Amino acid sequence: MNRELENGIVTSYPALYRSLEPRYSGACLFECDDGWYQIIDELSRKLETQARKSDLQVVCVKEKLGSLRVYLRGPATGRVQDWVATAEGLSRNTCERCTQAAMLRRHKDGGGIRTLCPACAAAMDYVIE
Ligand SMILES: [Zn+2]
């Protein structure tokens, strides 16, 4: 995700992201494209209230198998788990690049799957069925 968007989220929810670091030098904090910004922002707003009154923290945010994954450390109540599941579910219908309605698509070379709208899939050589 672009640095400006990342910084906006981390600054807005300081308790939740207090220990988040890039996994390796030069990597993004949020290892997904910008189309999921709003999903992450909304999830973070809910989780921040919990992070302020407990040890709850986000330790990793990334795209895996075409879906958003958010990994937590600390006490994840049932409600927290529901919020994360809702965000991950939304990501499966939201283009990772541009926020349009999307579905899981395979790359033409066979490597990798991502959730993309038809226009982004065409631009990135993913199969449109
Ligand atoms: Zn798109």
Task: Explain what this protein looks like in three dimensions.
This protein is of the alpha+beta class and 129 residues long. It folds into two domains: 3-92, no CATH class; 95-129, no CATH class. It is built from four helices and five strands. Strand 1, helix 2 and strand 2 form a beta-alpha-beta unit. Helix 1 (3-12) packs parallel to helix 2 (37-51) and helix 2 packs antiparallel against helix 3. The chain is elongated, with a radius of gyration of 15 Å. The two termini are 27 Å apart. Zinc ion binds at residues 95, 97-98, 100, 116-117, 119-120.
Topology of this structure?
Layout: H1 3-12, E1 30-31, H2 37-51, E2 57-64, E3 67-73, H3 78-91, E4 103-106, E5 113-116, H4 118-123
Parallel strand pairs: 1-2
Antiparallel strand pairs: 2-3, 4-5
The structure holds zinc ion.
What can be said about the biggest beta sheet? Answer: 3 strands, mixed
Strand line-up of the largest beta sheet? 1-2-3
Number of helices: 4
Mean pLDDT over all positions? 95
Shape, per Cα inertia axes: elongated
Domain module tally: 2
Number of strands: 5
Classification by helices and strands? alpha+beta
Low-pLDDT regions: none
Rounded to an integer, what's the Rg over CA atoms? 15 Å
Task: Summarize the amount of helix as a percent range.
Answer: 25-40%
**Bound compounds, please?**
zinc ion
List keywords for this structure.
single chain, 129 residues, alpha+beta, 2 domains, 3-stranded mixed sheet, two-stranded antiparallel ribbon, binds zinc ion
